Amino acid sequence: MKRRPYGKTGVGVTPIGLGTIALGRSPRVESDDQAIEIVRGTFEAGVNFIDTAPLYGDAERRLGLALRELADLAPDDLVINTKAGYRPDPFDYSEEQTVACVQASLDVLGRDFIQFVHIHDVERSDLTTVMNGAAKALHLLKDDGVIGHVGVAGGPVDLLMQYIETGEFDSVITHNRYNLLDRPAAALIDRAHELGVGIVNAAPFASGILAQPDNAASPYVYHEAPNEVRERLHRIARLCADQGVEVASAAVKFSVRNDKIGTTILGAASADEIQAAVRAAEAPIDEELWRRIEREAPPNTVDNVEEWRSTGIRSITL
C-alpha cells in the first residue's frame, strides 16, 4: 500500500492499519498460531501500521510472538502503536504507572523502541491529571529515545479537542465517531490536520454493525443499536446495493477517502478480514454513492454516544 504522511511526525503510514483487539479478546482467535497468521496476512497485504494496547487482553503478547516469528516478512518501515493507562491498574494516569506500563509493553512486544504510545481512554480521568502524569511521562520517554511520538486516544470529541489544543501531542486516535453512520469527529479531524497532529480513525464499522449490516446482533459502539440507527443503516444498505457495493467495503472506503486521516484501523479476526479491508480501500467507488448517502441517509453529527449508552441499552461483548 502507498504511505501517507502522518502529521508532522515524518512517519509514513498505510491508509489501513491492523487493530489487535481481536488478537486478545475475540473468541474467534483461539490460539497464538491464529494470531500470528493474522499478522502474516497484514504484512502480506502491505500494511505497515499495527495498533495494540494492554487493555486488549493477550494482544500485546501475541503481537510480540508474531513480530519475532515474522521478522523477515515485516516491512522495513513498520509502525507499532500501543497505549498507557490500564497497566498495572485501570484508569491510573500517573507518571510512575505510565513509565511502568511502557516498560512492560517493550518487554512483552520484544522491542527496545516503540514508535507511538497513546494515552488510552482519557475520558476516564481529567485533563490536569493526565497532563501532569501520563503526558509528562511519555514526553520524558520520548526525550530518552524510548518512544518516538506521544498521542492521545479516547471517545468524546470535545475532550480530545482540548487535548490536541495543548500542543503537546503528535497524534490522536478517535473511535466510533467518523463512519457512514456517525460523523461528530469531523471537526476534530479538521482541527488536528490544521495543527499537524496525525489522525488515526478507529472502528470504521462502528464496532461491527457496518461490517455485518444484516445481522441483528451486530454491535453498534459496543452496544445494541437503537432503532433509529438500524433504520439509517437499512437506507445506506439499499443505496450501496444500487451501486453494487457491499456496506462493509463502503465503510472502509468512506474513512480512507478522507486524506486528512493518516490511517484507519480495524480489529481483524482473520487474515482475510484485513486483506479485504485493503482491497476495499484501494477499490474505486462512484462519487454518486457518497452524494446519495449524504442526501438520503445523512449521518449523525452530534457526539451523543455517552448519552444514549447511559440509558441502559444492552452492552454487547465483542
Q: What portion of residues belong to β-strands?
A: 15-25%
* Global Rg: 19 Å
The helix-strand sequence is EEEHHEHEHEHEHEHEHHEHHH
Low-confidence stretches: none
Form type: globular
Q: Which percent range fits the helix content?
A: 40-55%
* Strands, count: 10
Distance, first to last CA: 29 Å
Quickly give the structural class.
alpha/beta
Going across the biggest sheet, name each strand in turn.
Answer: 3-4-5-6-7-8-9-10
**Main pleated-sheet profile:** 8 strands, parallel, barrel
How many distinct helices?
A: 12
Q: How confident overall, as mean pLDDT?
A: 96
Question: What keywords describe this structure?
Answer:
318 residues, alpha/beta, 15% strand, single chain, 8-stranded parallel beta barrel, 12 helices
Brief summary:
With 318 residues, the chain is α/β, with parallel strands linked by helices. The protein contains twelve helices and ten strands. The strands form two sheets. An eight-stranded parallel β-barrel has the order 3-4-5-6-7-8-9-10, surrounded by six helices. A two-stranded antiparallel ribbon has the order 1-2.
What would your notes on this structure say?
With 318 residues, the protein is of the alpha/beta class. It has helices spanning 21-25, 32-44, 59-69, 95-109, 127-143, 157-164, 186-195, 227-242, 247-256, 271-282, 287-296, 305-309, and strands at 4-6, 11-13, 16-19, 49-51, 79-84, 114-119, 147-154, 171-175, 198-202, 263-267. The protein has an 8-stranded parallel beta barrel, surrounded by 6 helices. A two-stranded antiparallel ribbon has the order 1-2. Helix 2 crosses helix 3, helix 4 (95-109) crosses helix 5 and helix 9 packs across helix 10 (271-282).
